[in-house]
């Protein structure tokens, strides 16, 4: 086997049994890994009515067939389960070092079933797997957990994917982290670990995956190394991190601000990548085999001094705790980021929950006494930080917000639903659909709720589609269009980006992302060099489409219908500031675009589920 | 411009005007050439109700963007028009030397409109085009025509695509031939030339297409040269030609015999490639840049002595005049082949017309006196040869058969419809769907009527799908299945084979054909090396799908509906001999498979036309 190990570790936490499955090459070729592989286990094993936080949920950690190749960007892994936040398909990818290490330890994926009575962690090393006691560090934050487990297994280089106290307390947007900063952020998969009393999965291995054409893999690595230094997007990302997006988005009037009421933030400069670099950044970091080093290492300034080990805030985090809450203090944002990484919470949902609470507060839906005395006005950095911690510890108002804005707004009442911005229960990421309408369509259609990494962003394709011509998109498309040409763009781009989630490839490193050094056509070439398969972009895109339809089938079972493919009312209302002031999504145009996309995807208009012929075309009858 | 010239020659025969259009790179990238390019001109220029044999029909000669590359198999060209045989989309490809020569002469395609009062031919040479008088050789057979035109233009190396007397006489299955033997055979496009009084298109040029990556093109040519000699299928094809199929198909019980009543022929040995090689074959030939040399040069034995310049019979011709008529005399078959090439008729339709007449005769629907005294029993070689000539000259019964079996059966009456085997008016090729059911589905669905080169043949995929895995087909499919897995196979294989008709690539030289030396993934690589486009198999398959849907739109305009997607009743009845005796297609299963394929293709169940979303996905609104 080249690329993959043909070993899936199946862990029954209730029975404390580990066993190994070898599904064979066809399985890997059909699913490629990641979300596709995970969906297979969810569809085969999960009863639809299962409580995501009950013992019957299934949690999968999966790599792709190319994970662990010494190529920049090929180092991620997926965690999937039924999401406690959406009640449907939950997925989250993370970079770092854990994914490759799992493969070096001899496994492609870990499927966790059941739940343990007492806290445990998994220790997977060189083909072996053990369920070990975690009682000693239950309740601890991620850093202490990581240190304790490394001591416990006597392996300082073990890679630890763990939860923090937020996951243990079943915060519905708790995340999984490796190396304290690479997060499988979204959808509350850390709460699923918490509900299973699984504190961490520690991995260490000395085996390296074999490649069919190691010379070609080496040449490709060399090509990347020589190319990225000449690539302006990659160089800039290395210098400023993802925070480099703050100022251009603000100038473009689509920096999410004041819980998406505004598109510009007066203090954008303060939370920009440029300012970060000049003030709190002390170093940069990157994932396995990647020289771009897009991660920041920061030390916040007093009173928000932070521990560099927890990393620095990404653009999404800066948007959520910064402009969305109108907090113009990069140290406060970094502190909130550290809280999230230490307690194990998704920074997007956490920041959105705070901004939601602030808008409730400004409109009287939450009163000061409901907020434990916090003055939850937009712009109050101290209140933002405090409320973030209260969510992590489920204290007071934090306990309500820990359920996510959808559930919180129902509990709060008083018109709070109007301020709860989410798709399928998942909070909106820091990308404003009113200035790039493809995002509205893609937010609505995503099986796992609002996700900014499932279809590329429109403005780029108004200027040029050169990088995505191999995907069959030959003509530029206006960023504000919602016509059939936009539906087509979203169809092919979302299949492409979700392909990257099957292979667990970093979306920054590859086209059409502005940082992308790899071109679209590198992907089939790399898959071929690694696995030896005579594959093609067509075959890979069909595998992605398979996973997209499996997610639809899964959601259908969980009770989702076409009416859940929608975006919050706010986006049908005008933006209140900036160069795009007055911009709004046409509800009618979006409805029509959704219908068109359904039809292009082969989905039923009534339910949003795949039609029989699509199921048959993708050979999914065993799941439908 | 690499690969293509961005020059389309537009000829108005009525006004005697030639002009040149430069549609630009996007046009070539969307259509690639061949059938796709031709469909653009038909959809833009043709009124739906136009008589295919009237002056308003449009006739396009088109190459692909890779035509003329010095690579085996990249030498074909398409002729398209509204077909006088089907009344819908008509297309036929041919190899030889004409296609590359057109490009060397500076044009990618020729679009012919209107009709001339007196016979003319086109003379296209090194960027120039002239409409020249052909009165002097109107009425002449192809060989005399070719010689006369070469003398007339003073260019012995001019390549001539011409019609013969059959085209002039509007035989509805008249063909176009270059070098007297490479035929754009099917659908009666020679009759369209005849109706326009266009005797020939002569081309000669000294320009060579430029390639973006000439070194890569050279390396690919070298790779093929080194590979084909080691490839058993290619070697065997060079030794025996397409006639090598006779004996294996006979052994398999699917050699079309006695007008598709039987699947085995007692005299198969006599008409086999092996026997041809031992008796009448005097040399072999091949197309531009191709070393396989699959064409036969034969000299028939008395009383059927033939002129080697007309080439030897292909498998299809041997099936049609041989086993289908139960004529076990390879020289008689070769003589009929020569008649077809000299008079310019499609050998498949001509042979089928004779076999149809024989079955009518055996059943009393045609009497001896209707047949000019011929004893039209199956197996009568002399009668077969004579009737073939009568069709070419439209003499007696031949005049009726020259209309094709569908129209002839209506004229003959007396139950003759039962013996008229056709799809959409086009006679069935020499491949028996009762032993490979995918063919039944593909015959029914083809926009241009029964065609054996629009989806590959099933038995190969019962054994292995290795060669088509890049097309996303990962599992073997039983040859007799008509389930959804067969619909999927037919969908992807027909898109693949029709892609080859956009690029005008020889289907023998590339996978999945048994002779194929090129693999599927060579195609995007070659297109990229030639054009410089960063393309992919996905993009190319979408271009093919574009052409497939354009053909559907065209047929819809011509009045075709879902009910025309059907096969003759005979195939629902049992085969009467051989190892597959009793085999039949289930009418119900086929109906279901057609419905499934419609749905997989995004076509309306009621009409078979593309749904709005498919039109939009492929950006075809301007045609729909």
Question: How many beta-strand segments of chain A?
Answer: 16
Count of alpha and pi helical runs of chain A: 23
Helix/strand structural class of chain A: alpha+beta
Q: Judging by the overall fold, what is the CATH architecture of the largest domain in chain A?
A: 4-Layer Sandwich
Number of structural domains of chain A: 3
- Oligomeric state of the chains present here: homodimer
The CATH superfamily of the largest domain in chain A is Aldehyde ferredoxin oxidoreductase, N-terminal domain
Q: Which outline of chain A best applies?
A: globular
Largest interface: A-B, 40 and 41 residues
Q: In the CATH hierarchy, what is the class of the largest domain in chain A?
A: Alpha Beta
What is the mean predicted local confidence, pLDDT of chain A? Answer: 97
Q: Report the C-alpha radius of gyration of chain A, rounded.
A: 22 Å
Helical content band of chain A:
25-40%
How much strand content do the residues of chain A show?
5-15%
* Order of strands across the main sheet of chain A: 2-1-6-3-4-5
Distance between the termini of chain A: 30 Å
- Uncertain segments of chain A are none
CATH topology of the largest domain in chain A: Aldehyde Ferredoxin Oxidoreductase,  A, domain 1
Q: Report the sheet with the most strands of chain A, covering strand number, pairing sense and barrel closure.
A: 6 strands, mixed
